[in-house]
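Need residues for this backbone.
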């Protein structure tokens, strides 16, 4: 790191390069079970329930099944608690620091945040060079479906129905 490499001869000239340290963004995929606080009186009960769930997981219970059954996060519970990939630093500090020490498959102890209690299971951690952009997700092409729906719709009174388009073979 910091070394100068070259000159290296290429067909059209020479190259001299300086080796710089690579900077990476770390992306996390994780599942969570969220239990909301029901006022100050319910705080201890929610923490105890989370501890009991952690013990069930340690004894072989499936994290994603428990998330489906008991998580109070309406955005992820149906998905087995799976969060979309994210940077740990984008979460509240208690969650971000807990994720740093987890290995894939491991589950945190109950984490109390202002919102409630979380149990988090790390699914995967990946590193990408900073500045790398993911290709945008391709949107489904709805035009064939629209054409099929238009062809199937009855023609208005007094108008002739349009024949569906068909591909013709070339020479």
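Answer:
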């Amino acid at each position: 790191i910091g070394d100068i490499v070259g000159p290296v001869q290429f067909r059209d000239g020479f190259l001299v390069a300086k080796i710089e340290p690579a900077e990476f963004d770390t992306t996390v995929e994780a599942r969570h079970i969220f239990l909301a606080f029901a006022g100050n009186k319910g705080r201890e009960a929610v923490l105890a329930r989370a501890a009991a769930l952690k013990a069930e997981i340690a004894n072989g219970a499936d994290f994603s099944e428990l998330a489906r059954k008991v998580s109070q996060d309406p955005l992820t519970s149906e998905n087995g608690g799976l969060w979309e990939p994210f940077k740990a630093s984008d979460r509240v500090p208690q969650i971000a620091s807990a994720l740093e020490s987890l290995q894939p498959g491991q589950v945190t102890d109950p984490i109390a945040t202002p919102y409630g209690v979380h149990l988090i299971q790390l699914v995967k951690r990946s590193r990408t060079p900073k500045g790398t952009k993911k290709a945008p997700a391709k949107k489904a092409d709805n035009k064939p479906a629209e054409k099929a729906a238009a062809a199937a719709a009855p023609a208005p009174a007094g108008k002739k129905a349009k024949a569906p388009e068909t591909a013709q073979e070339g020479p």
